[in-house]
Amino acid sequence: MTYKLSGDSMLCGIRRSEILDISVNDIIEVSGFADVRYRWTAHDSEFVENNPDDDIFLEIECLDDKKFKARGIVLK
After folding, report:
1. Do 73 and 47 form a contact (C-beta atoms < 8 A)?
2. Contact 41/50 with Cβ under 8 angstroms?
3. Is the pLDDT of residue 73 over 90?
4. Is 71 helix (H, G, I), strand (E, B) or coil?
5. Residue range 55-76: average pLDDT?
6. 41 alpha-carbon distance from chain centroid
7. Does residue 48 sit in helix, strand or coil?
8. Contacts for 56 with CB less than 8 Å, ≥ 6 apart
9. Is 90 exceeded by the pLDDT of residue 43?
10. Which of 34, 53, 54, 68 is geometrically suited to a Cys-Cys bond with 75, CB 3.0 to 4.6 A?
């Protein structure tokens, strides 16, 4: 059986240990997605710091021309 999901975005998990020393304006890249680059913001730092038990994800969007773009940081 095949299940099709609708939507144009996905979440890529980030381990906190991978970004332990991240600073504002540092870049996150995702191997396998050459176009995906995300610039870390002060808001992201505060968001992650104030939610220490949440999992961190980079939201990636598929554009109309089948290229990918980083949309932002999501916590769950």
Report:
1. yes
2. no
3. yes
4. strand
5. 93
6. 12
7. helix
8. 13, 14, 15, 16, 19, 48, 73, 74, 75
9. yes
10. 54
* Radius of gyration of the chain, Cα coordinates, nearest whole angstrom: 14
Which residue's structure tokens are 């021309």?
65
Q: Report the alpha-carbon distance of residue 30 to residue 37 in Å, rounded.
A: 7
User: Read out DSSP for 27-66?
Assistant: EEEETTEEEEEEE--HHHHHHHHT-TTS-EEEEEEE-TTS
- At residue 64's C-alpha, the angle toward residues 60 and 67, to 5°, is 50
Residue with tokens 């020393």: 21
Q: Which amino acid is at 34?
A: A
Q: One-letter amino acid identity for 45?
A: S
Q: Which of 68, 69, 38 is nearest to 56 (CA)?
A: 38
pLDDT digits (tens, 9 = 90+) for 1-16: 999 889 999 999 999 9
